[in-house]
Amino acid sequence: MDARTASELAGIDAIGQAALVAAGELSATELLDAAILRLESARHLNAVITDLFERGRDQAAALDAGGTLRDGSAGPVAGVPFLLKDLGASLAGAPEAMGSRALRTHVAAESAWIVQRYLAAGLVVFGKTNTPEWGNHCTTEPSLFGPTVNPWSPDITPGGSSGGSAAAVAAGVVPAASGGDGTGSIRVPAACCGLVGLKPRRGRTSFAPGAGHGLEGLVNEHALTRTVRDSAALLDVVAGGAPGDPYGAPAPAQPYLTAIGHAPDPVRILLATESPFPGPRTDPEVVAAVQAAGALLADLGHLVESGLPSIDSDAVADAIAVLHTVSNAELHALATAHLGREPLEDEFEPSTWVMVREGFRTTGVEYASAISAVHAQTRRFVAGLGAHDVLLVPTLLTGPPPYGLLDQPRGTTRAFFDVEFATTGWTTLANVTGWAAISLPLGTTSAGLPIGVQLMAPDETVLLQLAAQLEAAAPWAGRYPPAWFGQ
Questions:
Q1: In this protein, which residues make up the domain named Amidase (predicted)?
Q2: Which domains are delineated in the chain?
Q3: Catalytic residue from among 161, 178, 275, 439
């Protein structure tokens, strides 16, 4: 595979690459060789921390030999190279450190249900991407593997916790990579790296076979992509549940990839630019991007009105903090079981130790109260939207933040999240409520860096339809970062 062909393929999304294979113009092996070439040229980004090239080549060769890629029976992403986040996307037999020094020798015993769905759809897995320890941070700079570099600038974070996946997609290494989202961990990297980042609604995908949920339902898993149609196609791949799941989501009326071919009926959209949490005002450039998106949606026939749903920000922040302390105590237990001893001080990062030690002290009553607060604030949030169908807000309240801001210990877990929410603002409300939310790269700062605009709704279909309308009206596909392959 030559560099010119690899460069040309970098600009083609997953559906487009799969179509080349289906038409017989390229093989899955050739697509993989091109992706590996691009990955090798992007090593300086530190986006991929585990190479799985041989398993990828074996899988691609089996797909090429099987004939399903060209007989019409394969799906719309079959044969496409794909990367897995090193957290929540377990692949049996592959390393799985989850960003933690304590788990640096850990190997996954079984494949996550969502990974099984990816493989069944013909996605060719050939590596795992960098993530902060236990997904705790909305930045990706773990002490174990070092920081991932944002392809837009080495001075700004690619976001987190799916920052390695975002950087790989933004640089053109792959058209899509997996991600997970507990307080914004798909949407924050999407905003920082100029990508499409959809967090599905609660219950849309399964955490089988290893878990029923993550963070009491706050976590959802999906992918980072450059196009809306790729996000829709990948959601079709993973939508559904496994027996015994604690949550369920009603099946869509039609496949998401089909749905985005139709404009939605006019919807009522509530636009808010200021944060639901106390703190600094939203950056004026971000405000302008959200307002421009609102104006564009109004031009497309939707009713856009300004307002602000009501929540008790203290109750939300307290609940998020408590749920994370217990989750990190679980990390300590996992690491202890893996190591056969308790982790040493330098085997967890300082911010993790703050959460772990608070988790040891968290009572059952406090944990139950946090869960109750999540549900109570969900009802208050929904009531505050009134007759509106969709919420339009910033993804981040600022441009992409610098390194060293979102991963530092602050003395308490609540203080840690106060700093995070001063940057992320709205993202965690989608996790608390269980709503679907999507970040779209609709704006840029005066320095040319991406600005994400976020839409939230109870279901994914209307979000993807609106996103497809916005993508057609204000396309971003030709907007490449300085570290794009071949530049």
A1: 30-458
A2: 3-473 (3.90.1300.10)
A3: 161
